[in-house]
Task: inverse folding
C-alpha cells in the first residue's frame, strides 16, 4: 500500500464485515511514534481465527485463497521497527463485550515509514460504503486534534442517510478545516 | 468552519428529497474495495464516481456502491455497471480519469466505453 490511510481503509472493512455498528479509528502521533488503533464491536474472532489472521494464506473470503490485509499492515509497521497487535473477543464467548482491536505502532523517522496519505478520503470512503455503521475518528498529534463522530452527525440528520452526497461533502470539508486549523 | 448548523440546513433540504430517492438505482455502479482493489487504486476511482455522478446530476438514477473481491485481483480496480434489462458491463484497471469518462459516455450518454471493459482491455 502506498499510504497508511489505505491500510486503514482496508482493515476497517474487516470490522464492517464482522457486523460492527461502531468502529473507532484513532491515530496518535507522539514524538517519533505513530500509534494506529482500529477498534470495533463486531462479532470478533475465535482464538483459532485470531491465530491464523497473520498468515497471508488465511482469508474468510471464498473468491480467492489469500488474505493480505493484516499481513500488509503488520509488514508496514514492522519495517519501521514497530509492531502489530490484535486482540479479539468472539461473540460466542463474550456475548456482551465482543469485538476486535488492531493496534499498530510505527516509527516515523524510519526510512521505510509509509506516509499517512489522504486520511480524509479514507474516512469519507468508509462512510459512503457503510452509511449504517458509526465511525469515531480521532487524530491527535502536536497541536493537532481532529475529531469526527458520525453518531453526532446522524443525530442532526434525523434520518437523512450519511451517504447523501452533500453530507459526504460536509464531512470532507469539516475534516479538511480541522486539519488546516493548526 | 463547517458547522452543525450547515449540516442542519443540508438535512432540511434533503428531508423532502428522500421520497424522490425511492426510485433510485436504475443503474448500479459497483466498485471493488477489497485489499487488492484498494492497493491498486480503487479509492480515487470510487470517489470520482461518487463526485461525477452527482456533478452530472445523475444521483437519482445511478447509485454507487462498494463490494469485495471478485477474484480477478490482477485486473483491479474493477468497476461493474448493472442496468436493468442489460448485460453487466465490467470495467478493469480503472483510474480516476477513466471513471470520469465512463460517467460522461456510459452513465450519461448510454454508450459503453468498450476499450476499458474486461473483454477488450485485458
Result:
Amino acid at each position: 500500500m502506498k499510504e497508511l490511510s489505505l491500510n486503514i481503509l482496508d482493515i476497517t472493512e474487516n470490522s464492517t464485515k464482522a457486523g460492527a455498528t461502531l468502529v473507532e479509528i484513532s491515530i496518535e502521533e507522539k514524538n517519533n511514534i505513530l500509534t494506529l488503533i482500529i477498534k470495533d464491536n463486531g462479532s470478533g474472532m475465535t482464538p483459532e481465527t485470531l491465530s491464523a489472521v497473520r498468515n497471508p494464506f488465511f482469508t474468510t473470503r471464498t473468491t480467492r485463497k489469500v488474505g493480505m490485509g493484516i499481513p500488509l499492515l503488520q509488514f508496514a509497521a514492522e519495517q519501521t521497527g514497530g509492531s502489530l497487535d490484535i486482540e479479539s473477543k468472539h461473540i460466542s464467548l463474550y456475548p456482551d463485550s465482543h469485538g476486535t482491536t488492531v493496534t499498530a505502532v510505527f516509527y516515523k523517522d524510519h526510512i521505510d515509514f509509509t506516509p499517512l496519505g489522504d486520511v480524509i478520503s479514507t474516512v469519507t470512503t468508509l462512510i459512503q460504503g457503510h452509511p449504517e455503521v458509526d465511525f469515531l475518528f480521532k487524530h491527535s498529534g502536536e497541536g493537532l486534534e481532529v475529531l469526527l463522530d458520525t453518531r453526532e452527525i446522524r443525530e442532526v440528520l434525523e434520518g437523512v442517510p450519511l451517504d447523501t452526497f452533500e453530507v459526504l461533502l460536509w464531512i470532507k470539508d469539516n475534516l479538511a478545516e480541522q486539519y488546516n486549523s493548526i | 468552519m463547517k458547522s452543525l448548523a450547515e449540516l442542519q440546513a443540508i438535512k432540511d433540504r434533503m428531508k423532502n428529497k428522500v421520497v424522490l430517492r425511492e426510485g433510485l438505482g436504475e443503474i448500479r455502479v459497483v466498485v471493488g474495495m477489497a485489499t487488492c482493489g484498494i492497493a491498486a487504486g480503487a479509492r480515487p476511482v470510487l470517489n470520482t464516481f461518487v463526485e461525477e455522478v452527482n456533478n452530472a446530476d445523475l444521483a437519482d438514477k445511478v447509485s454507487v456502491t462498494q463490494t469485495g473481491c471478485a477474484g480477478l485481483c490482477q485486473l483491479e480496480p474493477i468497476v461493474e455497471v448493472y442496468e436493468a434489462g442489460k448485460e453487466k458491463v465490467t470495467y478493469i484497471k480503472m483510474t480516476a480519469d477513466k471513471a470520469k469518462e465512463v460517467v460522461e459516455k456510459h452513465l450519461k450518454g448510454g454508450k459503453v466505453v468498450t476499450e476499458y471493459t474486461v473483454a477488450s482491455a485485458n
Q: What stands out?
A: Chain A has one domain: 4-180.
